[in-house]
Structure prediction request, 114 residues.
Amino acid sequence: MHELALIQGVLDSVAKAAQKNDIERISKIKLVVGQMTAALPHALRFCFEVEKEGNPLLEGAELEIAEEEIVARCMDCGREFHVVELIFRCPDCHSGGVTVIKGRELYIDYIEGE
Ligand SMILES: [Zn+2]
Prediction:
């Protein structure tokens, strides 16, 4: 599953950050998920719950997910627009020559713990 690999990557980074900052227990992880990653929030949550099992660092931790919309820029007229339903076409000049400038990434916004 795509989401499982993503969550495992996130939890690796979280564990490293916790170690670096002397955090023994994580209470909250805020994740930003671009829609281009095609990761489903409910699947991410499910995988998180599975990975949490038996991990003292994550006991009681909460996962918050913010979805980031896809933003693209037209290479012909320079217009920036939100991509709706994966239609990559400029709403002004109808050019198909667009480049995605936002929504590709999945990253940890912050973690909380003590
Ligand atoms: Zn355009």
Summary: DSSP finds two helices and six strands in the chain.
